[in-house]
Amino acid sequence: MAQQADYAIEDVTTDLARVRIGFVNVYLAGLPPPSGGTPALRHRPAGVPTWALVDAGLTVGAAWILDIAAQRFGEEARPAAIILTHGHFDHVGGLEALLAVWDVPVYAHTAELPYLTGRRDYPPPDATVGGGLISRLSPIFPQRGMDLGDRVRELPSNGDVPGMPGWRWIHTPGHSPGHVSLFRARDRMLIAGDALATTRQESVFSVVTQPEELTGPPACFTTDWDKAERSAAMLAALKPEVLVAGHGEPIRDAGLPGSLAALARDFARVRPAHGRYVNAPAWTEEEDAEASAPVRNRRGVRWGTLSGVAAATVAGTWLYRRFGKRASQ
Questions:
Q1: Is 44 helix (H, G, I), strand (E, B) or coil?
Q2: Which ranges of 18-88 would DSSP assign to H, the alpha helix?
């Protein structure tokens, strides 16, 4: 994986790039122009989107995502959509700054919309599970939802993924109510989000060194373990040949389908024996249904990760660096 500035980027396939920002991954899905960069884009119709962003990472990563997108697809390029696997702080942190530069829709599962439209905050993490320092520190991490207003839309009911032809979204709740994973059948590629991880996210050592370890969802933020177990079984049934997740390195091992099936069969090895949500989910089905009711005429944006002033500063600085200096020359 090539290291650039404070992020790392890797081509998982020719049309899927993984960008690791701190301890979390985001993905750029789409085929770059043949020669890369802006020159190739001159031969395309203006405004035709060619790619999508999966998740928005940590707040500090917004400018890096913008840089990578410009390098990969051209300075004028913007995604067709931003697809959220879910709305936890480490997957939406860069969203406000990105939307200040890109006027694009954000898509999420309907059950995640309460946390993205200002109706609900996420439940407190469980610092007693996982056994690592990150779990013990989890109560200090942001738990607030955000209000994206009409910028966020429900994923299409037919399973299509906007901006990602050939991919299908799959509802994989447990880590969060509206968590989704993305699957492409032609090459059996799975973007698992946080339904699974490929390194033990609770351990600082694992987060830093990234040893490959197929495991369950990050424990301290998983609020329904029964659903998490069913979601793991659902993903195992797909028999993916390549697996990428929100945390950890890609897995391309020929034994991946068997390893994933074994994890699903013996989910007890990753499910905590005791904990706040182990025997009772954070929300009942009735509460989830009530919170998922349509939201209309909401005004303002309530962000749990970054103030509007800070996001505007990030976006403005990036835009000036890219275009202002060039125009003044």
A1: coil
A2: 37-41, 62-73
CA distance between the termini of the chain: 35
What backbone torsions phi and psi does residue 137 show, to the nearest 5 degrees? Answer: -85, -10
For residue 296 the two structure tokens come to: 């209309």
**Residue 267: φ, ψ to 5°:** -65, -20
Positive or negative torsion for Cα 279, 197, 266, 238: positive
Q: What is the pLDDT of residues 267-309, one digit of tens each?
A: 999 999 999 999 999 886 666 656 655 544 444 444 444 455 4
Q: At what angle do helices 256-265 and 225-237 cross, to 10 degrees?
A: 150
Residues near 321 by beta carbon (within 8 Å), at least 6 away in sequence:
none
pTM of the model: 0.85
Q: Give all domains of the chain, ordered by start, each with its CATH number.
A: 2-328 (3.60.15.10)
123 Cβ partners below 8 Å, 6+ apart?
Answer: 143, 223, 277, 282, 283
